[in-house]
């Protein structure tokens, strides 16, 4: 049974009333959207740490903010806090948020600088044997809360809960590149199940380090086109060779439509559908037949009460890796068939790089801006199309085109697949 405030399954309609975003393109929704639709790239040569002898020396790092450079937890918290502050201000919510917090954050480990610092604390007469045991003994003898928090990504959500007065235990999750979309889905489900009238969905990733570059390079996942950083990310092209690692954060304030209207909030869009499916094919690769991704897209459409003809634009995962782009095209073709040729599909990763755990939420913000402005952001660097991937990628230049529904794809390492359907506010 449906009403003004319930969907086709009788669940509360979930509205977005606030958004905040931070990427290598700038701070805030307005600056990011202006740069994104202008086809500007935020990818550059990394200067924050030495990249000598590394096969990849470029990234979409956030260099224009005064944040700790040596610790991923601190950077991730700082960016998340800025994005959440912007979103809450737009939503008109001050004081305690009084709703649950769902955070997507990178599963960082102690960085080498911290490990060396701990090693230096070990007494000379106790430096034999297992280093991990030595580190634990040092921390037991002299507890160091600051260092402890700087090593645990779970503390980010605890700090944000204190910053903004969220209710209950904050939830921290990491489902690889699908994390941001998963955090939003958890917020949507909490509202649909009448457990809360509002939820704060935050995603952040400040984990770009030399070690991260090395690890992804060993997986042959990163682009090595270092000479022209702004040209390195080229989704769906014939000469794509890997993704460009990046940083960023985004926050969405989610509310039941009824609650939002009751308090006079401006509705920025509707989270109409969520799909999620795990793929056990491989720890990094997606199933080559695209079946889990197909099921995820179909699940999101069904959840939103739409069929294949109901989507006006697709915000692609579009990482610029040879295998992922091919798989995503296969998955979209499996769902939309010949109709796919008439649906514009673009990837903002061509401009901001791949923000990893933050990507799904950042792209949700951009998807909602697409609906709000009637502007489709381009896929830049689309100069050598892959003939095996037939898509309308909105090549190189933005397009003015009104859309009322957007599908946003997030397909992560380890077979984590999440898709969101966003629509305009119901009339």
User: Fraction of residues in helices?
Assistant: 25-40%
- The domain count comes to 2
How many β strands by DSSP? 15
Spans with pLDDT under 50 lasting ≥5 residues? none
Known CATH architecture of the largest domain: 3-Layer(aba) Sandwich
Structural class by SSE content: alpha/beta
Principal-axes geometry comes out as globular
Rg, nearest Å: 21 Å
State the fourth-level CATH superfamily of the largest domain: Thiolase/Chalcone synthase
CATH class of the largest domain: Alpha Beta
Strand content: 15-25%
Mean pLDDT over the full residue set: 92
- In CATH, the topology of the largest domain is named Peroxisomal Thiolase, Chain A, domain 1
Main beta-sheet strand count, sense and barrel state = 11 strands, mixed
Number of helices: 13
Q: What string gives the helices and strands in order?
A: EEHEEHEHHHHEHEHEHEHEHEHHEEEE
User: How far is the first residue's CA from the last residue's CA?
Assistant: 18 Å
């Amino acid at each position: 049974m449906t009403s003004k405030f319930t969907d086709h399954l009788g669940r509360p309609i979930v509205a977005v009333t606030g958004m905040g975003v931070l990427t290598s393109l700038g701070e805030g929704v307005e600056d990011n959207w202006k740069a994104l639709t202008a086809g500007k790239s935020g990818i550059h040569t990394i200067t924050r740490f030495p990249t000598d002898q590394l096969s990849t020396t470029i990234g979409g790092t956030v260099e224009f903010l005064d944040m700790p450079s040596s610790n991923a937890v601190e950077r991730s918290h700082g960016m998340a806090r800025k994005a959440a502050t912007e979103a809450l201000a737009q939503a008109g919510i001050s004081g305690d948020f009084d709703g649950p917090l769902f955070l997507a954050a990178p599963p960082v480990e102690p960085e080498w600088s911290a490990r060396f610092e701990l090693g230096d604390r070990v007494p000379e007469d106790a430096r034999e044997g297992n280093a991990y045991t030595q580190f634990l003994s040092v921390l037991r003898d002299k507890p160091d809360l600051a260092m402890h928090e700087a090593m645990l990504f779970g503390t980010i959500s605890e700090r944000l809960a204190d910053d903004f007065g969220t209710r209950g235990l904050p939830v921290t999750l990491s489902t690889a590149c699908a994390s941001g979309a998963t955090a939003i889905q958890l917020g949507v489900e909490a509202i649909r199940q009448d457990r809360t009238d509002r939820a704060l969905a935050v995603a952040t990733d400040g984990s770009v380090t030399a070690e991260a570059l090395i690890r992804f390079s060993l997986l042959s996942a990163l682009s090595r086109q270092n000479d022209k950083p702004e040209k390195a990310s080229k989704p769906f092209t014939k000469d794509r060779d890997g993704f460009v690692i990046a940083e960023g954060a985004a926050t969405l304030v989610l509310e039941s439509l009824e609650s939002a209207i009751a308090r006079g909030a401006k509705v920025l869009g509707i989270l109409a559908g969520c799909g999620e499916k795990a793929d056990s094919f491989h720890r990094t690769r997606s199933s080559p037949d695209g079946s889990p991704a197909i099921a995820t897209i179909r699940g999101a459409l069904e959840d939103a009460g739409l069929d294949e003809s109901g989507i006006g634009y697709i915000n692609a995962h579009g990482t610029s890796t040879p295998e992922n782009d091919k798989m995503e095209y296969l998955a979209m073709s499996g769902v939309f068939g010949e109709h796919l040729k008439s649906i514009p599909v673009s990837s903002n990763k061509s401009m901001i790089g791949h923000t990893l755990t933050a990507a799904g939420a950042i792209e949700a913000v951009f998807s909602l801006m697409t609906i709000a402005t009637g502007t489709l952001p381009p896929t830049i660097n689309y100069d050598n199309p892959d003939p095996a991937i037939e898509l309308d990628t909105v090549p190189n230049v933005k397009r003015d085109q009104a859309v009322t529904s957007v599908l946003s794809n997030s397909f992560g390492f380890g077979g984590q697949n999440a898709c969101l359907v966003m629509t305009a506010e119901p009339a």
